[in-house]
Every structure is written in C-alpha cells, then in structure tokens.
Amino acid sequence: MNHWNSGTAAALLSAILMGGSAAVFTTMPAYAQETVKLELWSRQDPSGPLRAGNVVKAAERLNKELEAEGSPKRVEVAVRESPAKGFDDDALQLLKVFGIDQGPDMFIAAHEWVCAFQEDGFLLKLDDYIAKYPQHFGTIFPSLWSSAKCPDGTYAIPQDAEARMFFYNKKLLREAGYDDAFVDALPERALSGDLTMDELIDIAKQVVDKTKAKYGILHRPNKGPDYIMAFNAYGNDFVDPASGNLLLERDKLAAAFGWFERAVKEGVIPANNTAMEFDALRKEFYTGNAAFWMYGIWDLGSVAFPTYGLPKDEKGFFADWGWIAGPAAAKGGSPVSLTHPIVYAISASTKEPELAVRLLGHASAADLNTDHAVTTTHIGIKPEQLEDPRYAEAWPLAKATELLKITKFLPNNAQFGELNGIIYAAIQGIESGRLSADDAAEFVIDEASASLEDVVVK
Fold first, then answer.
1. 3-state secondary structure of 352
2. d(Cα 228, Cα 230) in Å, to the nearest integer?
3. Of 5, 236, 254, 302, which has the fewest Cβ atoms less than 10 A away?
C-alpha cells in the first residue's frame, strides 16, 4: 500500500463518505475517569442495523463490568458509516483507509475479506483472546469459526449466519407418484448422505414428466453463492489450505459442471434459467410450477410468506413444502449447505485490543444476537439462542440452524468474487448448450489463470 499525506487521507475519507452519513453513537458512563474511544466502521445497511447497534449496546455492558472491576476506564463507541452499496465495495474502500493509516479500531465485513486485511498486517490475531474469554466465545458454533480463519489463525468473530438449501414442493412430488413416506424422508436422507445429486435430477424429471409443472430445478439467475453448493458437493472447496490461495481442481470442476449439464439435458433445469428474472423464478416455484428451488432460508420470511401466501405456521408449511440440504455427489457421501457469515474484526494497531475484544464479546451475547437474527431472518451464532422464545417462534431459523453442522463457506480470499463471476459464465455456457462440462472446467481454469493472481491448478 502507498502511504499518502494527511491531505490525501482527508480527501479520501471525504470521498468515501460523500453521499452517505457518518453517524456517531456514544455510550457514556455517568462518570468516566478515563474515556477510551473505539471507532467501528460499518456499512450503512438497513437489512442489518444491529450489526453496529449491538456493539453500541455492548459498551453499556462492558462499562458496568469495568466499573465492578474498579477500572478507571470507560468505553465510548463511535460508529462511522460507509455508504458503500455492498460488502465488496465497502471492503475495498476500507482497505484504502487502512493503507493511509486511518483505519478504525474495529469493523464489520463479509467473511471472505478477512484474509485480505490480514495479509496486509491490518488485523489483530484473536486465537489467544478467544481462549481467554470462553464466556463470550466458547459456545459459538464451531463450524462458524472456519469462516474467520486465515492459514495461520483466527482473525475475526462470526456475527451471524445464513443457510442455503433446496426448497421443494411436496404436492408436486405426490402428484408425480411419490408416496408420503418417500416425500417426508427426503430431508433425513439428504443429511445422512443417502440422497444424491443425480437422484435429485431423477425426482425433478419425474415431476416434469408426470405433472403440469414446467420446471424441475430452478436456481438464481445471476452471480451469487447459492449454486456453489453444487460445486461443494463434488469436492470443490476452491481454497488451498496450505497457502490460502484459490484452488481449481479440473476433475472436480468438471464433475460439478456435469451435474448442471445432465439436469439441462433431462429437461430439469431450463436452458434459459440464467436469462430469467429473479422474481419470475420465485413466482414459478412458489405458485407450484417447479419442484425444487435452490436458494436461502431468508426467502421464506421476505417473499414466500408475505408475497405468495405460503403458510406461516410450521405445521402448515411442512404439510406441503419443505427443504433439504444439498445432497451428496455419491451415496454415502457428505451433504452440503452454504452460509455466508458477516464478521467483526479488530485492527492490529488499535491501542486497546483487550477492550475491543471484550466489547465484541459482549456484542456477541445470545440475547443481542437474537435481536438481530429475528428482525433480519439470519441464523444465530450460538446454540443457546435456540432456547430463546423469540428464536423458537421464528421457526424457519430454528429449523435451519441444524444445517450449520454441515455448512460450507466461500474461500476467505478477496479474489473469489471474480472467480465466481467466471464460474457463473461457465454455467451460462453449459445451460445454453455452448459448453460441455469438460469445456466449462477448462474455461474456468484458463480465465482464472489469466486474470487472477496465485491460482493453484490441479
């Protein structure tokens, strides 16, 4: 990173925040012998305002704790809000701010950016702190910590999670000739590794052939994480564990692309899936014109219930609808799900690392995290949240939490967004008939090798 002068720094910060607002929220004790100001960088995000708000609330708890300990220190939290439209843009802006030595004490980011900050020496390593404060971090789902790791350790704290799955229409499966026992057993078969990705194609084909439904399996029509589940099922993790570099394995890529290729040839995935509108795809599934819909748990609360009138009560929903984990590639293999945690991270240059860690520990409290989860349809980070009546009432979250046991993550590599765009272009090529599975694998390898840095190819 180049080091700019202070005038450039001020200009950059002004440019970043132009069009947005820099809101400062403070939590001050009644008396403060020594005020420690901790700055938190947060993207303006109406879909998750408590990501920052919970840190502000956590300061109240930490200050009470400090007072009880007889410490003269009290914490004040200042939230600097960035107007970036997405987490990628936000991370790129923040990397520039760190590059001119103007980085905040803490920030909120999408997990895949963690190692980009760590590589430049901007992040505090947290392993020892996590072990020191089990009351804050000890019950966070073990699987979620994987999203916060770089090759040499842990550099962030999981803030929330999601679950991606295949939703399915039980009515259509029954109309296609499958009995209730078969239909209702699909979730457990998927979790046990008995159900396979190819069997999913077979079931979807029978629905298309024997009912009035037009589609077997639908997926998002633009670049995004959901379809990466299919690649995970065939063993593609996209990251070299030793170096953290992106990893492309030709045979595993071809196997995953082969699933899309077979699904299109069987008339299960439509050849124009990637040309359809997002809302049109949702409508086809939720109005009974498709057997399976590959997407995420939040879609129920945001679209299925309010827009298409699917039953909001648990019993009513599962009478005719359901979801399964991504099936295994072969019988006896491992099922998959995909989550995309947002994380808290701490600057390596903060003057008060211990207080910052304790603050984010309090922000990770089960009750505060549940406040965020139930108001934004995100999955919590701790099993004790399942005991909260509010979380239990939000039954899609409670039910989907079991998928965290098997969940996968996008690589903690800032280049994965670009790689994902190449993968999506290859899916478009397959579904439109322009590429075979082998051609698609070669296309991804060639494009990634030419445009990305340090890609490992096997």
1. coil
2. 5
3. 5
In a domain, 408, yes or no: no
- Compute the Cα dihedral for 118, 163, 189, 282 and give only its sign: negative
Looking up residue 195, the CATH number of its domain turns out to be 3.40.190.10
Whether the per-residue pLDDT at 2 is higher than 80: the answer is no
351 falls within a domain: yes
Shared domain check, 292 and 434: yes
Confidence of residue 408 (pLDDT cuts 50, 70, 90): very high
pLDDT, one tens digit per residue, over 28-77 is 445 548 999 999 999 998 878 999 999 999 999 999 999 999 999 999 99
- CA dist list (Å): 176 to 47, 93, 168, 207, 286: 39, 52, 13, 5, 17
User: Structure tokens of 342?
Assistant: 């947002």
What is the rounded CA–CA span in Å between residue 458 and residue 449? 12
Beta strands in 127-259 (DSSP E): 149-150, 153-154, 157-158, 164-169, 215-219, 247-248
Query: What is the span of the domain harbouring residue 129?
Result: 6-158+340-378
Residue 286: how many CA atoms within 13 Å on its side-chain side? 21
Asked whether residue 29 falls in the same domain as residue 96, the answer is yes
- Examine residue 392 and state whether it is found in any structural domain, yes or no: no
Q: Are residues 324 and 349 in the same domain?
A: no
Q: What pLDDT, on a 0 to 100 scale, did the predictor assign at position 138?
A: 98
For β-strands 153-154 and 247-248, DSSP reports them as unpaired
How many domains, the chain?
2
